[in-house]
Design goal:
The chain is an alpha/beta fold and about 400 residues long. About 45% of the residues lie in helices and about 15% in strands. The strands form two sheets. Strands 3-2-1-4-5-6-7 form a seven-stranded parallel beta sheet, with helices on both faces. It has a six-stranded parallel beta sheet with strand order 10-9-8-11-12-13, with helices on both faces. Helix 1 crosses helix 14, helix 7 crosses helix 12 and helix 10 packs across helix 13.
Length: about 400
C-alpha cells in the first residue's frame, strides 16, 4: 500500500487575494488525497478558512526576500535598519522551518510565490525537494528587487533540487527557467459548471483587485474621469483592499476629480461573481500581471474584459486569439485607447459583444479549470517523488 504523500506549503499571505485564492483552490482538492501542512507569516481569513477545513496551519514570522523600498527621506534613513530586521527575522524563520521539515518529513516543500526564499534556504539544509511557484515579475510592476540581486535569484531558481511552476509562459521566459520547470496556468474555477451569461447588464464598469500602484488603479481613475465628461450615466465600482496610505491617496484623487457620485469603493466583497456577471465590463489596468486571475474569473462569469495588453493579461488574450482566430477581450495600450474603449463599450448594445463574451468563457473553461491545474500539479509531484527515490 502506497504511503500518503506529504506536502508542506509556504504562503506569503493569509488573505483571500490572488495567490491566496490560487493556493486555496489547490489544497481544497489535494487535502483529500495528500497530507498537507501550510506555513503562514501571520493569521488572516485564508488561515482561518483552511483551519476550519481541518488543514494544519502553522505560523512562522518571515518577510518577503526583497529590499526595502525607498520612496521618501524616512525610507532612506530606515533602509539599513529595515534590511537588518528582515535578514535577522528570516534567519530565525529558516531555523524554525528546518525544525518543522525535520519533524513533518514532507515529500515536497512547495513555496507559493517567488519572493519567498525561505523554502529554498531551508530545503537546502534538509535536502528536501522544493517546488517554487512563480506568479509575479517582481521588479516589473511591483518594483520589488530580490535579495541580493535578480541574477542571484535566478541562480537560486535553477538550483538542481528546485522545480519551478510558472503561471504563464511569459514568466518562464523572463526568469530563464531551466529544464526543471513547467508552465501551469492557475485553476480559477471548476469545469463542472458554466454560468449563464446575464444579458441585462447594470451601468457600471468594475475593477477588482488590490488597491496598489502596480494594479494601475490611478491610471484607471484618470481615464474614467475623461470618459465621465462625455457620459456620466455610468459608475466605476472598485472592489478590493490595499495599504491604508495608498487607498487614502486614491480616495483623495477621486474627491479632487469630483467623481464621488460615480466612483464607489466597495472594499472586500464576497459577491465578486455576481458583480462581474452584471458589469458592463471588467477593467484590468495592471502594469504587469503575472497571470491575471481576475481576467479569467471575469470571462468565466460572462463579463467583457478591457485589459492592458501586457504580461499575463496579454497572454490570456493571445491564447484566446490562437484558439478562436478572434479576440476574446478588448486590448488597450495607452490612456487614450482606454478612454476610447470605455466610450465604445458604453455606446454599443450588449448583443454586439455577446459572441466575444461567449468565446472568452469557452476559452477560459478549457484552459484555466481547477481540475486541469490540479492534474498537472499532481503529475509534477509524482514525478518529483519518483525521482527522489532513485
Amino acid at each position: 500500500m502506497n504511503r500518503v504523500k506529504k506536502i508542506l506549503y509556504l504562503s506569503d499571505t493569509p488573505h483571500m487575494d490572488g495567490s491566496g485564492i490560487a493556493l486555496l483552490n489547490i489544497v481544497s482538492t489535494l487535502h483529500k488525497t495528500y497530507h498537507i501542512q501550510i506555513v503562514f507569516p501571520r493569521t488572516g481569513p485564508l488561515y482561518i478558512k483552511l483551519n476550519e477545513m481541518g488543514i494544519c496551519c502553522k505560523i512562522v514570522t518571515f518577510y518577503l526576500d526583497i529590499y526595502p523600498r525607498i520612496k521618501n527621506k524616512k525610507d532612506f534613513i530606515m533602509f539599513i535598519p529595515r534590511l537588518i530586521k528582515l535578514l535577522v527575522v528570516n534567519y530565525h524563520a529558516r531555523y524554525k522551518l528546518v525544525k518543522i521539515i525535520q519533524e513533518y518529513q514532507p515529500d515536497i516543500v512547495h513555496t507559493n510565490v517567488g519572493p519567498i526564499h525561505l523554502g529554498f534556504n531551508a530545503t537546502k539544509k534538509t535536502n528536501t525537494p522544493h517546488v517554487w511557484h512563480i506568479r509575479e515579475y517582481q521588479n516589473i510592476g511591483f518594483g520589488w528587487t530580490p535579495l541580493f540581486s535578480m541574477k542571484h535569484f535566478i541562480k537560486k531558481l535553477n538550483f538542481h533540487r528546485n522545480y519551478k511552476i510558472a503561471v504563464s509562459t511569459g514568466l518562464s521566459k523572463y526568469f530563464n527557467m531551466n529544464e526543471r520547470s513547467t508552465v501551469i496556468y492557475d485553476g480559477v474555477f471548476s469545469d463542472k459548471h458554466t454560468p449563464a451569461i446575464i444579458k441585462e447588464k447594470d451601468k457600471y464598469f468594475l475593477f477588482v483587485g488590490r488597491i496598489e500602484p502596480a494594479k494601475g488603479i490611478s491610471e484607471l481613475i484618470d481615464a474614467f474621469k475623461e470618459f465621465s465628461q462625455l457620459n456620466n450615466f455610468y459608475r466605476l465600482l472598485i472592489a478590493g483592499q490595499g495599504v491604508d496610505n495608498f487607498v487614502k491617496q486614491i480616495k483623495e484623487k477621486v474627491d479632487k476629480s469630483k467623481l464621488n457620485n460615480q466612483i464607489e469603493f466597495l472594499g472586500f466583497r464576497n459577491d465578486i461573481n455576481k458583480l462581474m456577471s452584471r458589469a458592463i465590463a471588467l477593467i484590468v489596468p495592471s502594469r504587469f500581471e503575472g497571470f491575471g486571475f481576475i481576467t479569467a474569473e471575469a470571462m468565466y462569469n460572462g463579463c467583457l474584459v478591457i485589459g492592458k495588453d501586457v504580461a499575463g493579461t496579454k497572454e490570456q488574450f493571445d491564447n484566446g486569439l490562437c484558439m478562436n482566430n478572434e479576440e476574446i477581450g478588448i486590448r488597450y495600450h495607452t490612456h487614450q485607447e482606454l478612454v476610447k474603449s470605455l466610450i465604445e463599450v458604453s455606446s454599443k448594445e450588449f448583443s454586439h459583444y455577446l459572441p466575444m463574451i461567449k468565446k472568452a468563457q469557452n476559452t477560459v473553461i478549457k484552459l484555466y479549470s481547477i481540475e486541469r491545474s490540479i492534474k498537472e500539479i499532481t503529475n509534477l509531484y509524482d514525478l518529483i517523488v519518483e525521482k527522489n527515490k532513485i
